[in-house]
Amino acid sequence: QVHLVESGGDLVQSGGSLRLSCEAFGIIRSIDGMGWFRQAPGKQRELVSRIMSDGATYYADSVKGRFTISRVNNKNIVSLQMNNLNLEDTAVYYCNVQAQTPGDVLKTYWGQGTQVTVVS
């Protein structure tokens, strides 16, 4: 089993910055994709950014140029640097990891969510 611990959510003014981090704990054989989803009130959960084991990255159009994802492979940590935040970025952000434990297949794991609130 893999357990994800998130940190970094906060209340910030429009135009400000936050850095989210997520660390995966457990007996992990390998990790493929690591990323962040978000869910705003009344909206569906959406993929914000993902980084694969080979370093390839994906960003939603709404965050391109403002958010930067990174990972530290030997520590199973993924971070999301969020700059120039706006009101539409307000949401609960969820860490998402595709990991394989010994003797098991690749599975998707979710963090508990961290609240990001942007105010004017």
Plain-language structure description:
With 120 residues, this protein is an all-beta fold. The chain is built from no helices and 11 strands. It has strands at residues 3-7, 11-13, 18-25, 30-39, 46-51, 57-59, 67-72, 77-82, 91-100, 107-110, 114-119. Strands 2, 4, 5, 6, 9, 10 and 11 form a 7-stranded mixed β-sheet that branches. It has a 4-stranded antiparallel β-sheet with strand order 1-3-8-7, with no helix packed on it. The model has no long low-confidence stretch (mean pLDDT 96).
Main beta sheet: 7 strands, mixed
Structural class designation: mainly beta
| pLDDT < 50 stretches | none
**Whole-number radius of gyration?**
14 Å
How many helices in DSSP terms? 0
Average pLDDT = 96
Q: How many beta-strand elements?
A: 11
The fraction of residues assigned to DSSP E strands is: over 45%
**Spatial gap, N to C terminus:** 41 Å
Shape: elongated
State the helicity in percent bands.
under 10%
Q: Report the order of strands and helices.
A: EEEEEEEEEEE
Q: Could you give the topology of this structure?
A:
Layout: E1 3-7, E2 11-13, E3 18-25, E4 30-39, E5 46-51, E6 57-59, E7 67-72, E8 77-82, E9 91-100, E10 107-110, E11 114-119
Parallel strand pairs: 2-11
Antiparallel strand pairs: 1-3, 3-8, 4-5, 4-9, 5-6, 7-8, 9-10, 9-11
